[in-house]
C-alpha cells in the first residue's frame, strides 16, 4: 500500500498558527502522494519542499535564527532500500536544504557535508539560492524565544520501498556551527527495508539516544509503528529529559507518531483514504 506521513515539528504551537499549519501539512501530504507512484525519493523530497517553502515552519523560509542572527539549516534523507543517505549541516542561503541532502546522497560518496562546503556544493549543482529566508516573525522572536524548536519531516512508502527525510532551521539562539539531529542519520532520520522514521525536537538530546534508529529497530523487531514511536519518546524523556516527537511508517503503510510537547501537527494519507488525516493539533 502507498502511504505518506508528514510532521510540522513538535513544540508549543500557538492556537493562531494552527489553521495555516494544517493547510500546509495537507498540501505537503497531497504533493508527496502525487509523486509516490513515480518515485518515493521524489515524493519525500517534494513533500518536505512544500514545508520548507512555507514561513509557518522552522525549516527553509521561516527557519529560526542563531545567536548571531543568522539562519543555518540542517537536512537529511535516507532510502531504506539502498540504505543510501545524504545530509547537510549548518548550510546558509539554500532555499531547499532537503534537495541538497538528496544530491549528497545521489551524487557523492559522502553522507554529510556542512557549512561553506555545503553551500558551494548547492551552487555547483544549480540549486536555488535565497539571500533572504528571514521572516519578520522569526526576527521578532529572536532572543525572546530561546527554546523555540521545530522541524519538518516526511516518511513515504510505495509498498516496497521506504524513504524518510527531515529538514530544520535548528534551535533558536544556537551557536553558529551547531549541527542538530536533523543532519544526523540515525538521530533525526532513518530508513530501512522495514520502516522509516523522522524526528523533531531538542536535537542535542535526540542525538544522544539515536532516536530514529531506536524506533526503526523496534519496528524491525515487530513492534507496531505507534508503539515504537511511544517507546522512542519515553526513552527520550527518561534517559535525557528530551522534548520532541517522532513519526514512522512500516512497509505495510501503517503509521505511528508520538510527542511530549504541547503539539506536533501530523498529516497521513494512504491509497485507501481520499484525504489527509490530521493529528497532533
Ligand atoms: N530537531 C531540530 C534541532 O534540534 O536541530
CATH class: Alpha Beta
| N/C terminus separation | 26 Å
Number of spatially distinct domains: 1
The CATH superfamily is: (Glycosyl)asparaginase
Bound molecules: glycine
Q: Biggest β-sheet: count, sense, barrel? A: 8 strands, mixed
Tell the overall outline.
Answer: globular
What's the helix count?
Answer: 8
Quick rundown:
With 281 residues, the chain is an alpha+beta fold. 33% of the residues lie in helices and 23% in strands.
Layout of helices and strands, plus pairs?
Blueprint: E1 3-7, H1 18-36, H2 40-53, E2 73-79, E3 84-91, H3 97-107, E4 112-114, H4 115-124, H5 136-141, E5 152-157, E6 162-168, E7 189-191, E8 195-201, H6 203-208, H7 211-220, H8 225-240, E9 244-250, E10 255-259, E11 266-270, E12 277-279
Amino acid at each position: 500500500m502507498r502511504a505518506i506521513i508528514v510532521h510540522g515539528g513538535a513544540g508549543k504551537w500557538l492556537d493562531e498558527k494552527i489553521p495555516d499549519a494544517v493547510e500546509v501539512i495537507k498540501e505537503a501530504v497531497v504533493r508527496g502522494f502525487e509523486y509516490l507512484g513515480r518515485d518515493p525519493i521524489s515524493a519525500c523530497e517534494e513533500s518536505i519542499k512544500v514545508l520548507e517553502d512555507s514561513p509557518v515552519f522552522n525549516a527553509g523560509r521561516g527557519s529560526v535564527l542563531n545567536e548571531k542572527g543568522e539562519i543555518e539549516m540542517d537536512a537529511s534523507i535516507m532510502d531504506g532500500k539502498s540504505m543510501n543517505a545524504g545530509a547537510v549541516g549548518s548550510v546558509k542561503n539554500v532555499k531547499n536544504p532537503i534537495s541538497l541532502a538528496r544530491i549528497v546522497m545521489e551524487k557523492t560518496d559522502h553522507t554529510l557535508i556542512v557549512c561553506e562546503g555545503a553551500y558551494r556544493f548547492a551552487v555547483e549543482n544549480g540549486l536555488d539560492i535565497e539571500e533572504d529566508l528571514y521572516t519578520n516573525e522569526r526576527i521578532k522572536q529572536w532572543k525572546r524565544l530561546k527554546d523555540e524548536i521545530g522541524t519538518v519531516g516526511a516518511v513515504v512508502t510505495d509498498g516496497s520501498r521506504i524513504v524518510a527525510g527531515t529538514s530544520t532551521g535548528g534551535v533558536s539562539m544556537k551557536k553558529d556551527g551547531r549541527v542538530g539531529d536533523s543532519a544526523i542519520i540515525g538521530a533525526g532520520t532513518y530508513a530501512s527495508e522495514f520502516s522509516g522514521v523522522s524526528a523533531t525536537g531538542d536535537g542535542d538530546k535526540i542525538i544522544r539516544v539515536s532516536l530514529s534508529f531506536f524506533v526503526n529497530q523496534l519496528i524491525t523487531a515487530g513492534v507496531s509503528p505507534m508503539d515504537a514511536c511511544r517507546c522512542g519518546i519515553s526513552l527520550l524523556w527518561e534517559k535525557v529529559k528530551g522534548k520532541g516527537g517522532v513519526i514512522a511508517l512500516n512497509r505495510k503503510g501503517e503509521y505511528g507518531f508520538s510527542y511530549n510537547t504541547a503539539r506536533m501537527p501530523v498529516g497521513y494519507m494512504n491509497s485507501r483514504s481520499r484525504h489527509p488525516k490530521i493529528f497532533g493539533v
